[in-house]
Design brief:
By secondary structure, the chain is mainly beta. The protein has one domain. The protein has a two-stranded antiparallel ribbon with strand order 1-4. A two-stranded antiparallel sheet has the order 2-3. Strands 5-6 form a two-stranded antiparallel sheet. The chain is globular and about 65 Å long.
Length: 110
């Protein structure tokens, strides 16, 4: 008889984390996210529910929101996100390290 386990159990046994982001759905607030020269809020009308609204606080630097996650060298990670432009001219998302915030990937949405 073969041993059968669920995908979730298999992932736990192998140490695979299926969701590295805290509060990626922004269901009621912005817990887990850090603002830089901005105010963060959970807003309706995202692609599939709420989304993160980043409102600049009038600083010379653009407003940002980020979340630090721990990754392992040699492991693959999949990022899935939805960008909805607000009142700013454009928006940007970046993947990087603490030393260089856009070293892995950067795209500007208009």
């Amino acid at each position: 008889m073969a041993l059968r386990i669920s995908t979730g159990m298999r992932n736990r046994i192998l140490g695979i984390n299926t969701d590295k982001i805290t509060n990626g759905a922004f269901t009621s607030d912005t817990t887990g996210w850090t603002a830089v020269t901005a105010t963060l809020s959970s807003a309706g009308s995202g692609q599939a529910g709420n989304c993160l609204r980043v409102t600049e606080t009038g600083s010379a630097n653009p407003g940002k929101a980020y979340q630090d996650i721990t990754t392992k060298v040699g492991h693959l990670y999949k990022l899935s996100l939805y960008f909805k432009k607000g009142t700013a001219d454009n928006g940007k998302y970046m993947i990087g390290t603490t030393a260089d915030e856009n070293i892995i990937y950067e795209i500007i949405e208009t």
